[in-house]
Design brief:
alpha/beta, four-stranded parallel beta sheet, binds threonylcarbamoyladenylate
């Protein structure tokens, strides 16, 4: 690992700059969580609305007590099992966390990433790092440093390159404000795994006007090319003169009618599919296709997060 670069990145964070860095899920765009001006620059660069709060990244479970009023026992359990890793918990915040980080909410979202570069950046900075995914608002999250450079490169102070993100979809977000824990976003840790530790979790549906996680707007993670989920060979015929790309889950034979095909996992492995998802959609998105049709993926394990992202990326219309 390029230690010098991490040290340089930490110096930038301490001075109030913004740094893109790898995590095991997607690349983040980070600033000192206790520096409101630095955090404001993240919103500007991403063109992110201020009502959409950020996740605060810590380097140790012990850091959580400095950020929240109370840590319920089921949160302690779940953290013990899944941190460091792709799990974010939402708890009642301490007053001194700047409002810009939490969009004025009384709560804060916290996670401890497992990527070694992310962990050493937070440790060396000696402060929690507020970071959304390092993409322009509404677009797909970046899973390589190249993705970040292409879209935000000249506007951030440094892009740390830690290679492709091994998980490839964002963290699972669970809120602990009500009696029962509630899933706000499916992600890198599966619901099944979480429920095996803390019991039943409520599942929020995709809401249209009042999202429970403010950033969970139904139309999100979207490429420029329309993506369609509900299609079949028959209704594709009306598109026969159009350029259509296929986002396939696994390898099958019958691909001739497509202009380009991206296979997420040749052997149909859901983890591998998640890791390839955003990069594959980006590759399709630069081909000037008229349409991308996506295959559905079994909604178990990481499949739930993949389908959630595909639904948010897709156009509402069905083709028929
Ligand atoms: O894997 C991840 O979580 C990545 C990496 C960089 O850590 N981060 C990420 O951040 O996906 P972002 O900002 O793209 O998505 C965070 C989501 C948003 O939908 C936001 O609304 C929600 O977390 N969120 C943040 N704070 C919240 C809070 N206090 N209550 C409810 N939702 C919150
Ligand atoms: Mg994001």
């Amino acid at each position: 690992m390029k230690d010098n670069e991490v040290l340089q990145a930490a110096r930038i964070i301490k001075k109030g700059g913004i740094v893109a860095f790898p995590t095991e899920t997607v690349y983040g765009l980070g600033a000192d969580a206790f520096n409101p001006l630095a955090v404001a620059r993240i919103f500007e660069v991403k063109r992110r609305p201020y009502f959409d709060p950020l996740i605060v990244h810590v380097a140790s479970p012990a850091d959580v007590k400095n950020l929240v009023k109370e840590i319920p026992s089921n949160v302690k359990e779940i953290i013990k099992r899944f941190w460091p890793g792709p799990l974010t918990v939402v708890l009642l915040k301490k007053e001194d966390i700047p409002d810009i980080v939490t969009a004025g909410l009384p709560t804060v979202a916290i996670r401890m990433p497992s990527h070694p570069m992310a962990l050493s950046l937070i440790k060396e900075s000696k402060r929690p790092i507020a970071a959304p995914s390092a993409n322009p608002f509404g677009y797909l999250s970046p899973t390589t440093a190249e993705h970040v450079r292409e879209q935000l490169g000249d506007q951030v102070d440094l892009v740390l390159d830690g290679g492709p993100c091994p998980i490839g979809v964002e963290s699972t977000i669970i809120s602990f404000l009500e009696e029962r824990p509630r899933l706000l976003r499916p992600g890198g840790v599966s619901l099944e795994e979480i429920e095996s530790i803390i019991g039943k979790v409520e599942i929020s549906p995709i809401e249209d006007d009042k999202p429970s996680a403010p950033g969970m707007l139904p139309k999100h993670y979207a490429p420029r090319t329309p993506i369609v989920l509900n299609w079949n060979d028959k209704n594709l015929k009306i598109y026969k003169n159009k350029k259509i790309g296929l986002l396939a889950f696994q390898e099958t034979k019958n691909y001739l009618k497509f202009h380009h095909v991206e296979v997420l996992s040749k052997k149909g492995d859901i983890r591998e599919a998640a890791a390839n998802l955003f990069a594959a959609i980006r590759r399709l998105d630069v081909l000037n296709l008229d349409l991308i049709v996506a295959e559905s993926i079994p909604e178990m394990g990481l499949g739930r997060a993949i389908m959630d992202r595909l639904r948010r990326a897709s156009t509402k219309e069905e083709i028929n």
